[in-house]
Protein 1
Amino acid sequence: MSVRVRFAPSPTGPLHIGGLRTALYNYLYAKKNGGEFILRLEDTDQNRKVEGAEQYIIDSLRWSGLLPDEGPSMQGAFGPYRQSERRAIYEKYIIELIDRGQAYYAFDTTEQLNDIRAKHEEQKKSFKYGANNRIEFNNSLSQSHENTQKLLKSVPYVVRLKVTPGKVIKVKDGIRGYIEVQSEEVDDKILVKNDGMPTYHFANVVDDHLMKITHVIRGEEWLPSLALHQMIYEAFDWSPPEFMHLPLILKPQGKGKLSKRDGEKMGFPVFPLAWEESKGFRERGFLPEALINYLALLGWNPGTEEEIFKMDQLEKIFESSKIQKGGAKFDFEKARWINHKFLEFTEQKAVFERFPEFIKCLPAHWSEKKRSAVYELLRDRLFLLDDLRIESRLFLNDPEEYDSKVMNKIEKHNPEKIIGQFIQFAKNSVSVREWKNEIQKWNEKEGLPFGAIMQSLRLALVGNLSGPDLFDICEVLGNEITLRRLEKFINH
């Protein structure tokens, strides 16, 4: 049977990078095994649906290069791919389950159940609606058939799974091994809500079966639901898919799952794209392939020392057996480093064409040659494309002030005299490429530390000791601007 996996987010908000990593592992598993990657939107909870979230999910996957083979925006043989459009399908299968005696109607009101829960809490007991007490409640198991039919026409109801006590539910997880649960530990979960919409658990199982999903790869937060899903499969006499529950992405410091608040507090994004006031990885200047590379390593290890992988490499080497069980701490500095590596080997032309919004900081009146030269000079200093905006300032503005610590350090070596000599080079149109040889000849008589000479020149041109090669800076600035900065330093 061909491998079929699905990524099934709920459009209740922006896609978190934890969700994006889940999508990535599904995608890589499908590509590794020559299968299909399906996008399904689980939007049965219409009250929690957020405007724009569905398109955000689709846009995020597209930007990341995780293109589904089937989904809401393309043709597929197993649609519709929005659960809200599959209501008739769920109605058919819930009737089948009831007819099989595996589910039943329940007419209990929310108020009645809340009162019972409160009484249990007072007695320090946990309340569970199931085999031990279901006959005491208002449901089709405690009512006659005739009375049930009357209630169905006049009273709101839900449909519950009829859990058989005394059974051992044994399910294999591809990452964690076998998991066993006593059926008494699972209550009679609601499968269809009183608005007629299925719960996640029921729709999830029905859709996975009908869409012929072979492997369910999802976050470990769904591990407690595994036994329930297995019981629904058994109630239908369906063969379940293979399951894999991925480890959590943890916050960099402390314990717990990475959250939006952690990103806001520590200054890094947690969404692939911008959402409301929050910048995404795209807006911070990440190449999507670099983010994908980082996320792949966040809970999976190829078994080698290598850390930089393009997508086609990941598709070949990805092995689900190398997914770790424990949570993986998010490390923004590591993500930046990987992005830096991708910027190092990505051609400048490709960067300019793909990410024009970051190149706008280089003036439009500059020639293409100059814009390219500046980018190449700064490339080694870029960890994010957004860094270009800051790093390029040295070419855009003359220094307004000079590092006082450096000034105090070089003052005894007569920086005015040193810069005066460079001014003569500029005025006499000496090629910048000859400046180093010429200043060394001049210094044979002066005997100044060569470091002080170069620090004086850098301070005059940049205002501090940072930046790329000095003579490369001079070439890009041109003779006129270089001379202006040297004279301004002398006046200072």
Protein 2
Amino acid sequence: MKWLVKITAISMLITSAWAVGEAGAIFLMIAPGAGPAATGEAQVAKVEDAYASYYNPAGLGFLSGREAALMHVNWLPNLADDLFYEFMAYRHEVPGLGTFGGHVIFLNLGKQIQTDENGNQIGDFRSNMWAITGSFGTKLNERSSIGVSAKIFHQKLFDQGVIGEAGKGISTDFAFDLGYLWKSDRINFGISIANIGPSIAFIDENQADPAPTNMRMGLKFDVFKNEFNRLELFFDMNKMLVASYSEMDWDDNGVIGGYTDNGNESFGGDFNRDGQQETAYKDKWYKALITSWLDDWYLGGDLNLGGWTTEQEADYVIGGYTWIDDPLNTDDIGEIYGKGDSQVTDYVSRPECPQCEIVADDNGKLNRWGVKEVGTGDERKFSAEFKEIVYNFGAEYWYTDNFVLRGGFIYDEVGKIKVPTFGAGIHLGQYGFDFGYTAGKSGHPRANTMYFSLNIEI
């Protein structure tokens, strides 16, 4: 279906640390505001306006008065011309208590073509997503503040059930955010954990995905400031606090599963003898706050990279094959065929060694496709966690309090998003007009995205 293609594309392209494909409701990760967009989305330690309710609710604690903010953007213009993202925010100080705030997000996914199970067009439908958030921030002392947000969000992909699936393509869920902000004379430090909540199911509860829980941590530096000029630098790090595990051999016995969760032997079972699940799965959100720092290197064992056999049955054995040269002249061919399998040259070839063949071997480290499996658990390193982090860099130059130039860069290795950003703004009296632009290579879905924002101090 067209809607499925479009949703899948958005899921792969929105900034995360994560592996964004590991979570649901990824529209919550779209960073709002033309100003933040122009500074590479680095904002967690700045939060000096109504956008604080999104980036770090603790920033509300330092804000006084009232303010409204509006933003409009044609999201991912290279992917589609009918994806529109709208954002509205508001903050209101209560003297002696703190500042309340909140925002509304609406993502219009446009018109989709409805098809039946045979691919025949039977009509059109529209998809959208929205979220409503309420926030509160208050000072702990003159240099620090804390904040909290609660949100409800709704996703409407498709309002009819899918054949073979329970439920519809609609979900309504909730989550909350926590934030902290510390300020010194020239340096700010901010941290927030957003979208903490239960799993999200679009179609079937058995296919639920974790909420896009994300930790954003960063710094703001006041480089230079005088009566008319001001230069500020920003740096953020974003990491998805979602823990997911590929199919792997946790107990180092050379096979995947084979038992029920209570230790009973069961062919095709998902668990090992110790009750540990060895098929692919994801941790609950409360556990993932810790295990998301361990799942890519410390937890688990050798990876099962076997895929599917010609019989369409899962290849649950770790390793078990090896390459041999000139098999017709090998004296110990009987010992090599240790698992009852014959040569599997139908599946894999070795161009640099045409006469080589891959055969079964009890001590082999490869699977039947020649991919190494035994030992892959030991090869996983802590550095993999850092590769999943999204790095945001930004700078602002102000001339008086009326004119601003901005620049930044987004570096997301896993998401393959490495794009510069820039923009400008004019602030006169109680009004602020800002423009942001995400550049990038021609054809990249995030390239040529323009943001427009309006801030009004009431």
Protein 3
Amino acid sequence: MEGSLRVGTPPESHRAAESLRGSRRSSNRRLPRRAAAGRRSFTSTLKALDDLAASGAQISVRITDLDRGTTVLAGDDFVTLPVAGLGVVPLLIEVAAGFESGLLEPLEIVERSTVDPVTVAGVWQHLKAPALPLSDLAVLTASTGDALAANALLSRVGLPAVRARIEQLGLARSALLDRFRDERGPDDAPHFALGSSRELAEVFAALVNAQAVSAGVSAQVAEWLSLNHDLSLVASATGLDPFSHENDEHGLLFINKTGRDAGIRVEAGVLAGPRAGVSYALIVCFDDLSIMHRMRAHEAFRTLGMDLMEYVH
């Protein structure tokens, strides 16, 4: 709610989820759960988010412990807000499901000339290659937030199919409304996508727990998202290499996706370390009146990242 943020840590427990990091770090000694449980305050994050809310920002935040399935932090996590480019995640899930079922051929070539030009983000518009296979378009979409590649995937699978997939995933407060556009007119949808932090965190938990459509689809989408280059918000606290962070020598498992638009910053992902693992999502909608307004929003994401690193490490 604008001007305030309702934050809590509900006591209810859900079925404990089995995390992928069990196989990634099976040889690591696991510290007692109480070592992580003592780091649950997120005091710095709460102060940063309260300050943003007091300035008029709309905020939705959710952190879930992957091992226990319990809510670590929740603030207006049920509120539906614009999520910008993070809306490509259900699109990627639909594409991966098409690959697995055989309805889509990963090496099917898409001509760039068949897609309406869009220049808001990405690298395909700068490449000489006039055509790319669907699998490469998925990589560009996940790794660089390539709007043209995402629109090409969307034109191939169709918006109704993605909306049906969102419903199948049980995401009642999420929607993919439109394709990426350089400008939105009065006849266009006001946003690319909508979502809530609760559902975004649930989707990422499902991906690493092999529960998004199937184990194969979950693994494929998680692999694509592990290539994401944008580690400038929550992920800035991890110290990971933006261009190569699949196999971290310090035992971090990490996947994420960000979303950016005028006055909108969003990040969701999974972060797992020696002590614990979490799925998280933070949506901030703010008045982007100056660089200082923007940096205040960015700083809240970085603060959350520091608290998350303390929790998992």
Protein 4
Amino acid sequence: MKIIFSRKGFDSGYGGVPSPVFPNGQLMSLPIPGGQAPHRFDELTTPVGPMGPLVQQLTGRPAFPRAAVHLDPDLDAGSVARQPGWRGSLGQAGAAQSHLASQGVGPGDLFLFFGWFREVEQTNDAWNYRRGAPGQHVLFGYLQIGQVLTVGAQPDTAGILAERPWLHDHPHLDGERSVNNTIYLAADELILPSGPTGRPGAGAFDQLTADQVLTAPGQSKSRWRLPGWCGPVPGERSELTYHGDPARWAHQDDGSVWLTSVAKGQEFVMDLPPVAGAEAWLRTITHGALRGAVPAPAGLVEPKAAVAPRRRRLG
């Protein structure tokens, strides 16, 4: 099984501000603006009401509520009206998709989505960032791949929707994209190497927990604290793509590793090592309360999600 740390949501280049963590601990990843996308920010629902006023207040941009939104990854069934059969999905194209393909990412592999978050508070009936609250990289959801759809630059939309009409508003079926334009569909159930978990195949975390925070205490958001098994043997290259340089890693006395993550890039891939604690960490990360997830069917076993490790290329 591969795990993919996948950077998504608002950042300094798209949106310009962090996604919010609300006073009750709920978090909401703000999807990036998207040119020809079929939805607008005003159409999306959040734990505190419509997303349009929220992004307007946090960005200070009055036009944002009417802007098109690239709802991707799409993990929350309650964010917009859905057709029967809906399930979580992720679209990818261009260089990022080429990287996923070169690493052999496919059914059974697990995306762990992270983004830039900061605590907010409500003052004078408007949402603002809490003074002194740091920006952090936080895991906000996951998706285990059940199926990969290669839809291409000019998708056969009619053919795809004949079988999956619930994909009608997916942004990667709207407009022209690169020839490797791809949609990853979630598995029915999250299945780890030791077996089924009873958890949905994809979901957005409803509440922030300490386990979901990647940023090391007191550090800038891109300085991460990870379990020791994520790091390389001292002096050797890391297995995590784009992070091979040993100088990016620092082993800590408590058994963790600190990583200076790259400033750009979307998909960072590594094989889940067969070591004590690795799967337990994934179970802890994915065990939190989910918002708008499709429950795993009772008694389902989906063998394709438990696949043998594949050779990978270092990035």
